[in-house]
Amino acid sequence: MMRQIQKQVAAARSASKRLAIASAEQKNESLDAIAHALRDQKSLILEQNRKDLADGKKAGLSTALMDRLKLTEQRLEAMAGGLEEVTRLPDPVGEVLEVTDGQKNLRIEKVRVPLGVVGMIFEARPNVTVDAAGLALKSGNSIILRGSSSALRSNSVLVDVIRRALADTSLPPEAVQLVTDPGRETVRELITCKGGVDVVIPRGGPGLIRRVVREATVPVLETGAGNCHIYVDRTADPGMARNIVINAKTDRPGVCNAAETLLVHQEWAEKHLGSMCEELTLHQVEIRGCSRTRQHFPQSVPATATDWETEYLEQVLAVKVVDSLEDAMDHIDRYSTGHSEAIITEDDAAARRFLQGVDAAAVYRNASTRFTDGSQFGLGAEIGISTQKLHARGPMGLRELTSHKYRILGSGQIR
Amino acid sequence: MMRQIQKQVAAARSASKRLAIASAEQKNESLDAIAHALRDQKSLILEQNRKDLADGKKAGLSTALMDRLKLTEQRLEAMAGGLEEVTRLPDPVGEVLEVTDGQKNLRIEKVRVPLGVVGMIFEARPNVTVDAAGLALKSGNSIILRGSSSALRSNSVLVDVIRRALADTSLPPEAVQLVTDPGRETVRELITCKGGVDVVIPRGGPGLIRRVVREATVPVLETGAGNCHIYVDRTADPGMARNIVINAKTDRPGVCNAAETLLVHQEWAEKHLGSMCEELTLHQVEIRGCSRTRQHFPQSVPATATDWETEYLEQVLAVKVVDSLEDAMDHIDRYSTGHSEAIITEDDAAARRFLQGVDAAAVYRNASTRFTDGSQFGLGAEIGISTQKLHARGPMGLRELTSHKYRILGSGQIR
């Protein structure tokens, strides 16, 4: 007997062929219809979400997880508005990326096409269901969603609303599939379904991502952790450094583009590190300092080796004094997760060296790492932030959900 | 104790940092130096190759494998000439792909960068050692080569010549590493070395590729088999169809872009299939025909189900009569490996439908599938042909060995 998930993959695959040739208008109409349905069905959606929340409370989910799980009228409206924003983005499919005059007057066109079937494995946040479905549909892809069991009722009602909305449009409802079996085995089936699924995107904690990377035979778009550094160089403007560090650490500490470690050039540290740490403390940031940091700010907690590799995702900052730009870059090279790394400097040569030498998706001069984000980068919306180097790196929008094919037009050419 | 392969990865990684900032001139000088050394050391290289050949003969390698293993003066010269060709290709590194005006006047530049460390796992052909090293170096990457044990002496002497040539240039010899331990375990170490190796490219038979895809945690650029189809539509020009089919099947049957299955519209088959099969037979092609093919050409061997999925790589062609374009596309959808698929037709609407609907790296109208090749596509040289959709699809040249980073230039911006 064919397993449920294989049926879903086959249905998604078949739907993807219709999506691949859908016009921008058809896709936009469908997204609008989904946005409308989300608003229309909000009581139904919130009711199911309340049941997930009640179960979550009984199961003792953390406050942070409960907050991620929770839907509100406002959050639903943001999801609907997000879909409408995606309708305003250009359709990536069909774009001719290059034309080459091949040998013997062959015309070789490189054309953007959808990936086909996208598998998305994610934890908690039910808004991902709607965001990911919207981006997948606009880029001409089917999507198979596998959320966590704690959000199963919320995800189910959302997918149900999406599919019923699609049924009244020209796009096939089978383009959006939800895996409802909570067993771990379904994840394995999805990520090893070569030929059926074209890419899997894991979004969640490091455990989930490691498992997907290890077990997948389908190509993975890895969205990773952000152990982001800010290096305050010898010549950094003190006011600018202060603003950027406080913003990168405290604006939203729970997200991957927040700063986790501050590296400070010793000369700058002599003059300004003490007062900067004091100000961070006033912003409720706990300082974990190296021995030299503690000379400037004795109140700081002594940093241990694990602090340098920890993505705190809370109001904690590791601080280390370094002798030089090279020392800062060596530290980053060792501990960076390749997400976002910044230098604060007035020295053009130092900036150039840092921006060229640091290996990360986003390298900054004199700005907060918090800008690594699809909407900030002008992508409109993002399906995650890739920390791998293959295919996509940094915020992934519509174009990152596409591939290309070569279309070769001849008049009888042979080799 | 650190294992040999981990040492090699660490050395390659460290060298890749120097390569990433090398100028085009430095890289070209190094390639020229290698080309020179290959010519200079040809007796030494051929001597080591003869030992591999002698062992291969004893071990009973097939004629095809022996031919792939064999180096000659002419083949060495082609390898050296290939490197010189790569020097004439533009340096992909540092290219600014896009500039975005981000929020608050942030300047966001998307810049092309090397991947870092490329792992290459390949069978037999020692020329891959030189070709891959040349493309990796020019694109600013280190490369770790793991060839088959039957070519170990040939690969060793080639890597030795390359590294000694690099030692006299400004690029680090450690950028090119050869894994000399023939155990299967070394492959596993290489393809699970996340953080050390940025991508692995397997080139070889389906067994090798399946194993790498299954076991790798490092992202894989899959170079796949080519079960390529030619569909002769109702309106195909008979002379053109004949030329293309004969060329695609017989020009070089052992390569992945050769045709393996011919699909013929029934109306065209009525008039022309018999004579086409006869002509193919004159070109020493064995026809494996479906029942309707055999009505037109009774001498053909009856095709079985496995014929449709077989990449013969020899002078054998499976032939099937279909009722319509849609039937042809369904057959291709089922059996295609996503490499190269062609339609021969005078009908623009049919061509459009085929080119849009068939999911493959290269889709052709009225030309031989044999053109799917880096040099034919104007890439200059290729490191393989990707049949996956992520990152690279179709022939992979220098640009496919690069990634990008975002370089963000601010003046104190915070969110």
TrEMBL record, chains A, B:
Enzyme Commission code: 1.2.1.41
PROSITE patterns per the UniProt record, alphabetical? PROA
Q: Which residue range or ranges hold the Aldehyde dehydrogenase domain?
A: 4-280
Broad class of where this protein is predominantly found = cytoplasm
UniProt xrefs under InterPro entries: Ald_DH/histidinol_DH (IPR016161), Ald_DH_C (IPR016163), Ald_DH_N (IPR016162), Aldehyde_DH_dom (IPR015590), G-glutamylP_reductase_CS (IPR020593), Glu-5-SA_DH (IPR012134), GPR_dom (IPR000965)
Pathways involved: Amino-acid biosynthesis; L-proline biosynthesis; L-glutamate 5-semialdehyde from L-glutamate: step 2/2
From the UniProt record, list the reaction(s) this protein catalyses.
L-glutamate 5-semialdehyde + phosphate + NADP(+) = L-glutamyl 5-phosphate + NADPH + H(+)
Which keywords annotate this record? Amino-acid biosynthesis, Cytoplasm, NADP, Oxidoreductase, Proline biosynthesis
Subcellular localization, as worded in the UniProt entry: Cytoplasm
Q: Which NCBIfam families match?
A: PRK00197.1, proA
Biological role stated in the UniProt entry: Catalyzes the NADPH-dependent reduction of L-glutamate 5-phosphate into L-glutamate 5-semialdehyde and phosphate. The product spontaneously undergoes cyclization to form 1-pyrroline-5-carboxylate.
To which protein family does this belong?
A: Belongs to the gamma-glutamyl phosphate reductase family.
PANTHER family hit by this protein = DELTA-1-PYRROLINE-5-CARBOXYLATE SYNTHASE (PTHR11063:SF8), GLUTAMATE SEMIALDEHYDE DEHYDROGENASE (PTHR11063)
- Name of the protein described by the UniProt record: Gamma-glutamyl phosphate reductase
- What is the primary gene name for this protein? proA
